[in-house]
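Moderator note: this is an archived Q&A kept for reference. The question asked for a predicted structure of one protein chain; the sequence and the answer are reproduced below.
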Amino acid sequence: MILFQKNGDYEPVAWVNGRPLHVATLLAAIHVTALVGAAFLYALRLGDWLELFKFSSNSVLHGAIWRCVTYAFVHNPTDLQSLIFFVLELGILVFFGLEVERFIGRRAFSMFYLLLILVTPATLTLHGLIDRGHDWEWVGSMTAHIGVFLAFACIYPSAEVFFLLFFRMEAKWIAWVLMGGLTVSCLAQRDWAFFAVLWAVGLSTWLYMGWVRGIITIPSLPRVAFPGIRRVPPGSGRSMPLRKKPKPAVRKSDPMAAIDPLLDKIAKGGLGSLTPEERQQLERAREELMRERR
């Protein structure tokens, strides 16, 4: 049985047989479904169809915008190393992503995950504009899930996490080791595309977490207001004074509506059933009716 939770940003999306379903676990299920679907395509010798969903900077520049999102859900089920990394990524998404979602809310987490997915194609498309002779391609969600762990480290920097399955380290140091190790690998291999994507994801994560937590504020442009003057329509050549809003008309009270309950009471219990206050109210209503008739 599935019960959907409409309200409550810090509540699960739904309950499935009494178990909570969060955005992080729902995203993990979508990734698993995409992997199984890719396995069926390869089994049916239709693996080439996955090329339509991989990111390609040239394809995006020619209108294939959907690739900016679908690339993250394209996984290779034929490579054992890719499957191992896929399992590790799902572990990061389910464990650390769930903690991030509980802290910032499911709406903010959903927007954050979408941001992580879009950072990679945005960076590579910019590379494609700079270097038009090279087509940058990308598949998988590794950089997005690196961003999820970096978000956890931003929120809980002193939380101890198992590192390399044997050592416990604080999340902030693991984040620095992860970013430093990948950066050194990029420099050694002259992989400038991955270097740019890695630090774009790191910077976006830091800015978004700072904004959600209120540490970083986005300044807004000041609005200059001139009293008594509103925006001039094109071609008029002059300012127009603000029109005063007409005051709402005051509706007169209906005396009959006020005495109807009293008349009902008289019909049931007679005139003697009225209290002194009700008798005065009846008399005021009678006088008001007499004035209106004059």
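Archived answer notes: Confidence is low (pLDDT under 50) at residues 228-232, 234-243.
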